[in-house]
Specification:
Layout lengths: L6 E2 L3 E5 L7 H14 L5 E5 L4 H10 L4 E3 L7 H16 L5 E4 L16 H8 L3 E6 L6 H11 L6 E7 L3 H15 L2 E6 L9 E2 L2 E2 L8 H15 L2 H9 L4 E2 L13 E6 L4 E3 L2 H9 L2 E6 L12 E4 L1 E2 L5 H6 L1 H12 L4 E4 L1 H5 L1 E5 L5 E3 L4 E21 L11 E12 L6 E5 L5 E4 L1 E2 L3 E4 L9 H21 L1
Parallel strand pairs: 2-5, 2-6, 3-4, 3-5, 6-7, 7-8, 12-14, 12-15, 15-17, 17-25, 18-20
Antiparallel strand pairs: 1-11, 9-10, 13-16, 18-19, 20-21, 20-22, 22-23, 24-25
Helix pairs in contact: 1-2, 1-7, 5-6
Length: 469
């Protein structure tokens, strides 16, 4: 007797662009706010490893935004299966799911398209709407649109939104653009200088740093209602094929529970929501603390210090001597700890800022971490463990991502990083049986066994402590 595969409707659109800087995030946030104002309960997703754009989505919707990263999820068919199941898992109950692309639509690993927004659209069978910059172009814009749509036979591109253009100019060229490109014009968005988001060395400033963000979002949503073809965008989204669950998120938790304290505040804010959920599924009860504002760690069995912008809060982190001492005691007591990028930086003895000032930090990692003038080891990598450690056994591998302007005098040699799309490799990460810390970011959906091992170490440590007492 054969059983049929259950398919679930997930109305969805991916908003992409020919290149970075086209204004995708602004248009996506405007659309999300307008859809929310219509009572449609939208869900938001981000293609790629970016942490900052999902923070904007979250501030708009008051619910988490989720990353869909074909590389971090395990590459190739495994990564595609995890992405499909994650989109289904979070999008099934939503009125519509909006996916925001990364970089240019076809830009992926190295000089190819692996892990690009295009490959995400193909893996999830999602209709694509291009956001194109309309400044200084007339009919020539149709050549860009047609080229983007025809570059791959399965481009999934169905329409376009013209950004940074006056509505009257859009109306003048609309029919010509549609006729020449074969795509549907789905609205425009004018320049709104009062609603722009500022940038810094890792991209946009975080959503939490913009005091009047809700005012800006209200203005963007009002403009979206005026100049975006929202009803037609919804119609395109509802034409997306249904999705079927394929086991990409299947997970079997181990016995027992452990409390993991997660650093989360203005300085440490780079976390993948699904990574945190995987830890919970593995048996972790998460409690959040602030290295900036709290004086001591909460009662916990393990620690997770994610990335962020600790360099912007160097003095405040340094002045919180009570928290630094609390962390130092926990690590000296061999409390299991996983630290990524900014969290790894904070655990060094000192930080040297761009003005050559030195600030004492936690002191669990010898030497200093310091700012540089350029990106260091930017992009996707595959990590291989050189010895058994807190998260895995020697020889095990995981996909990861790096993106930082700082560097360390003690960046570690317990893993080897292999640059994707390149022959480059380098040593990285400080690791032992109770600690893993380094610059690379991982996603636990890409290696759930590492989450299980981390939580198991926390449970084991708790049980040993209980036995000793």
């Amino acid at each position: 007797m054969s059983s049929s595969i259950q398919e679930t409707p997930v109305p969805r659109l991916l908003l992409a662009a020919p290149c970075s800087g086209s204004g995708k995030t602004t248009v996506v946030c405007a659309l999300l706010q307008a859809l929310k104002d219509r009572g449609l309960s939208p869900a938001a997703f981000k293609s790629g490893p970016d942490y900052i754009d999902p923070m904007f989505h979250r501030r708009v919707l008051d619910t988490p935004s989720y990353n869909l990263d074909l590389f971090l999820f395990g590459r190739h068919e495994r990564g595609a299966a995890v992405a499909r199941d994650t989109l289904l898992y979070h999008g099934a109950a939503a009125g519509i799911s909006i996916l925001e692309g990364a970089m240019g639509y076809y830009d992926g690993v190295g000089t190819g398209s692996e892990a690009s927004a295009y490959e995400l659209a193909a893996a999830t069978d999602t209709p694509v709407v291009l956001v194109v910059d309309g400044r200084g172009a007339g009919l020539s814009l149709a050549a860009v649109l047609k080229g983007m749509a025809d570059f791959r036979a399965d481009s999934h591109v169905v329409g376009f939104i013209v950004n940074r253009i006056k509505p009257m100019v859009y109306e003048h060229f609309k029919a010509a653009w549609e006729a020449a490109s074969g795509l549907k014009a789905l609205g425009c968005f004018p320049d709104m200088p009062d609603c722009t988001f500022s940038s810094r060395h890792l991209g946009l400033v975080t959503a939490g740093e913009i005091a009047d963000l809700q005012v800006k979002m209200a203005a963007l949503a009002a403009q979206a209602e005026k100049s975006l073809a929202i009803d037609e965008l919804l119609a395109c989204a509802r034409q997306a094929a249904p999705l079927a669950e394929s086991g990409g998120r299947s997970f079997h938790a181990g016995p027992g529970r452990a409390v993991i304290a997660v650093a989360r505040d203005e300085a440490f804010c780079f976390y993948y929501e699904d990574s945190l959920q995987v830890l919970q599924q593995a048996g972790a009860d998460l409690v959040f603390f602030s290295p900036l504002h709290d004086e001591a760690l909460p009662s916990c069995d393990g620690l997770y210090l994610g990335g962020g912008y600790p360099e912007l809060y160097a003095q405040a982190l340094s002045r919180n001597t009570a928290m630094r001492a609390s962390l130092r005691r926990a690590l000296a007591a061999r409390r299991p700890c996983f630290a990524e990028c900014g969290g790894f930086m904070y655990l060094h003895e000192t930080f040297r800022d761009s003005q050559d000032r030195q600030w004492p930090w936690v002191g669990a990692i010898p030497g200093e971490t310091f700012m540089t003038s350029s990106l260091k080891r930017f992009g996707y990598v595959t990590l291989r463990a050189e010895k058994d450690n807190l998260l895995c056994c020697a020889g095990d591998t995981v996909t990861a991502h790096e993106f930082h302007y700082s560097n360390s005098a003690c960046s570690g040699r317990d893993f080897t990083a292999y640059k994707a799309g390149s022959r480059r490799q380098w040593p990285c990460i400080v690791a032992n049986d109770h600690f893993v810390g380094g610059y690379p970011h991982i996603h636990f959906l890409g290696k759930r066994a590492w989450a299980t091992r981390f939580v198991a170490a926390c449970i084991h440590g708790k049980e040993e402590k209980s036995y000793e007492n």
